[in-house]
Structure formats: structure tokens, C-alpha cells
């Protein structure tokens, strides 16, 4: 009886999709272990020596990385063989009936109650995990279907159009609905890039609007630090002046207020600003004379 109870307990312990390690499970295993040894060493077996093997000394001896392997590859077979040996002994000597004392009855009852509680807990936990898995699968399918619809209708994610430097610093903030922070990070990235170019070319460490004025301004006798277009032509000069105003204005009107004041902007406003920062980055990519080493 007790060896069969031991097997039932181990099947309950290792079954149910996951293993629940706790002090009580190890305590129950040791109580069964000791009880079986007590019975084997008792008077009823004194004329029939029986050597009973156990799959584990205690449950804490299991491999923590893959505890179920000790049961699947060895423990189950050993228990089955031991139970057969015990049954053969009863057939050989004749089955005797012994009344359980109160202590043994309480032990069996407490173990059965524990196994029932653990089984119910594992069922509930598996249902909870299954629900989470279904929700995640549904969410993944929704994202996949949304992407498919966008592709079929020639709709693209606006981030596909944004400069990679801006994507790196702004996308996660934007997706977390930190729109002002995403915009501020975008224009900080523009500022950092221009600052690095200017410092490499003229050795001055500038910032913000003053940096942009210095980087893109030119005269009849001197070229700008960053040349964006062909200044030998009127159109090129107009482009250079226009972008200087865009770079300077972005620092003055967008980056600085976002950095120094608690200004909230909505999603659409953030997208417009991010596109502007991206356009400035792409213009730097296409600059005629630039040094970012």
C-alpha cells in the first residue's frame, strides 16, 4: 500500500505539466521513505528478507535543471520493478491484512489531500497559462494580419521612411507614448551629429542654434563649415540659407522648449516633428562637404 502510495505521489509530483518544489513535497516523500523501510524491517518480513530500492534519497537530490529526467529515465522503471517484487512476495507468502493505526491512517489521508490540492493547483495554473498563450497568439496574429493588410494596400509603417539614427533614439519612446521625449531625442540626435562635424572641422564645441548658425552660414569670402549644395549657383545658395534656417529654427523652436519645459504633444504632432528631424538627417547624408570621422 505505502509503496503504491509512493508511486502515486511521485506521478503527481512530476505530472501536470510542471513541477512544484516546496518543503511539504520533500517532507512527504521522506515520510513515505521512512515508513516503507520501517515496514520492511518489521516482524512481518523477518522470515522473508526484502531489499527495497527507492528512486531518490530525497527530492532535493534531483537535477535542478531537468528534474523530470531522473523520473522518466530510471525512476519510473525502478518503482514498477519494486512494486512487482512486493506483489510477488505477497503471492508467495500469502496476503495478510493488517489494520492501520491512527497515525498511519492520518498519514495516508494527509498525503491524499495534498496530492488532490496539488493536482487542482496545477490544473488551474495550466488553464491560466493556456489563456495567456492564446491571448499572445491572438495578438501576434492580429499584428501579422495588420502587416499583411498594410502590404496588400500599399500602406507602410512611417518608421520605414525615417532616418535610421532617428529610429534608434525615438521609436521606442514613441511606441511607449512618450511623444515629447521622442521628439526631443530626435532633435538631440541632429544636434549631436552637427556638433561632431563642426568640432572635427574647426575645433569649436558649440550647441543649439549657435551651432547651426556657425555650421551652415557663409559669405562671399568664406564657405560654411557644412556645405549642403553647390554654392556656385543661386539655387544652391538659397538651399544652403533655407536649411540653415531649418536647422537653427528646429533647435530654437522645437528642441530647446521640449528640453527645458514640460510640454505635452499628441501623436500626430510628434510624427510631424520626427519627419522634420529625419529630413535634416537625410540632408546631412547628402551634404557636399562633410567630415564625421
UniProtKB/TrEMBL annotation:
Pfam families: Hypoth_Ymh (PF09509). Residues 162-282 form the Conserved hypothetical protein CHP02391 domain. It comes from the Archaea. NCBIfam families: hypoth_ymh (TIGR02391). This is Conserved hypothetical protein CHP02391 domain-containing protein. It comes from Methanobacterium lacus (strain AL-21). The lineage of its organism: Archaea, Methanobacteriati, Methanobacteriota, Methanomada group, Methanobacteria.
Amino acid at each position: 500500500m505505502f509503496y503504491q502510495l509512493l508511486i502515486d505521489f511521485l506521478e503527481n509530483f512530476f505530472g501536470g505539466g510542471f513541477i512544484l518544489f516546496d518543503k511539504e513535497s520533500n517532507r512527504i516523500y521522506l515520510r513515505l521513505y521512512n515508513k516503507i523501510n520501517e515496514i520492511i524491517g518489521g516482524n512481518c518480513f523477518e522470515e522473508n528478507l526484502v531489499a527495497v530500492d527507492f528512486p531518490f534519497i530525497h527530492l532535493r537530490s534531483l537535477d535542478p535543471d531537468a528534474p523530470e529526467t531522473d523520473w522518466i529515465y530510471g525512476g519510473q522503471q525502478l518503482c514498477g520493478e519494486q512494486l512487482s517484487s512486493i506483489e510477488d512476495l505477497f503471492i508467495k507468502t500469502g496476503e495478510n491484512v493488517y489494520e492501520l493505526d491512527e497515525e498511519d491512517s492520518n498519514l495516508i489521508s494527509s498525503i491524499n489531500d495534498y496530492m488532490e490540492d496539488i493536482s487542482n493547483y496545477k490544473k488551474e495554473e495550466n488553464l491560466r497559462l493556456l489563456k495567456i498563450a492564446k491571448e499572445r497568439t491572438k495578438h501576434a496574429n492580429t499584428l501579422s494580419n495588420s502587416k499583411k493588410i498594410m502590404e496588400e494596400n500599399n500602406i507602410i509603417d512611417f518608421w520605414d521612411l525615417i532616418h535610421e539614427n532617428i529610429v534608434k533614439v525615438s521609436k521606442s519612446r514613441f511606441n511607449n507614448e512618450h511623444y515629447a521625449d521622442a521628439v526631443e531625442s530626435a532633435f538631440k540626435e541632429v544636434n549631436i551629429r552637427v556638433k561632431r562635424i563642426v568640432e572635427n572641422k574647426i575645433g569649436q564645441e558649440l550647441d543649439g542654434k549657435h551651432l547651426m548658425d556657425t555650421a551652415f552660414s557663409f559669405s562671399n569670402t568664406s564657405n560654411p563649415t557644412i556645405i549642403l549644395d553647390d554654392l556656385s549657383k543661386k539655387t544652391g545658395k538659397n538651399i544652403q540659407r533655407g536649411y540653415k534656417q531649418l536647422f537653427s529654427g528646429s533647435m530654437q523652436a522645437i528642441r530647446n522648449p521640449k528640453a527645458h519645459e514640460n510640454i505635452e504633444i499628441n501623436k500626430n504632432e510628434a510624427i510631424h516633428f520626427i519627419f522634420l528631424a529625419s529630413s535634416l538627417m537625410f540632408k546631412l547624408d547628402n551634404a557636399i562637404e562633410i567630415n564625421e570621422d
